[in-house]
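Open question from group meeting: does this chain pack into something compact, or does most of it stay loose? Before anyone orders reagents, we agreed to write out a predicted structure and look at it together. Recording both the input and the output here so the notebook holds the full record.
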Amino acid sequence: MAASPMLDSAFSVDTVTYEIFSVLEKKFLFGYEDQKLFLPGKHEIPVETLKSGENITGKVRVLSIDGGGATDGILAGKSLAHLEAYLRKKSGNSDARVADYFDVVAGADTGGILAALLFTRGKDGRPMFTADEALQFLIDNRRKIKPSAPAGIFRRISRSSKKAEKLFRLTFGEMTLKDTVKPVLIPCYDLSTRAPFLFSRADALETDGYDFKMTEVCVATSADPTVVGAVEMRSLDLRTRILGVDGGVAMNNPTAAAITHVLNNKHEFPFCDGVEDLLVVSLGNGESDCRHPNPSAAELVRIAGEGASDMVDQAVSMAFSHARTNNYVRIQTTGFDAGKYLKNSKSPANGEDLLGIAEEVLKHKNVESTLFRGKKIIQNTNSEKLEWFAGELIKEHERRKTSILPTVIFKQASPRTSSATVSTESSY
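Structure tokens returned:
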């Protein structure tokens, strides 16, 4: 009788665990005198390397993308385009993608859409979009994703929601959370439970009760509660029902959620014990310079999201402490006033305007949160920080090719099936 998929999965985990701890036992308990160590599918590892004290498990690479902010996601999109260009230049691989160099991505609102575009698997097995293509997608479809809402517009709520849904259905088809190349985390706020809900690839691989179509995930995380209202959706098996609204309401800056996920997910990240085992880049979208004495409901939602993003940045900076400079990068601009960048400041900024503004912002000097001292401006520009971080990602990518132990052990599954298997991807 053939073994069940669940038994196969359990056997795979046990096999990997056995191999890992056999190596640890030989190295640290009884010594290891062989001149070379061989592991299936790996290079030879000289014993001198084992004794050198080098980090043999590497660092987990985390990408976090804020909600829309003052640039409707375009600053983060442009930052990703710069990062991918640097990765291609430094690696010598003209087809390098952002997803190749990260182990997990978290994105809220338009940040969640960028995460979905960059990490959902295409027909050729590669990510569906390059960073440039994802940025252009936001520019071209900005008003379908984020329709404006002047007074009396609520009669158009249903139509606005349908436009976004149609756009995402044409983009993702029947793809679900299982169809991503790496772990993905995308939040929304569930009005039915009055609590945040985190769409997670890891949860989707465990049960269809947490697997959702990427179309619905993108609609829910970007659903402006002041315009579109809540989006009702169900999991693939119809057992889980949520009323989702804007992921920015739940966690506009999902960096902390991503870090928590990694540190507590020992199945996929078995050797990640603290922030010193992480490489994190967090991309903001600009904090608006709102000085109206009576802000609208939409402006209040945005201000609340931006304030929460700033608090998360402060908390993460404190958590990284001495490792902050080398392990954590935040790209953000504060006091953002689009009007001063426009030729006609009385007209609202369009997508191309915001793209030009994003280019200017990346030339600005980077700002870091400092423990108990607020923020400080450093000498490097935002673009230079991204270039430096691309180099660190490539170093980690190369380190894994000779790593004795896997940094990540990703769960894998055939699309739209409930069984999960385990894949050791230490060279990713």
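Observations to bring back to the group:
Confidence is low (pLDDT under 50) at residues 1-14, 23-45, 49-53, 149-158.
The CA atoms of residues 178 and 415 lie 6 Å apart.
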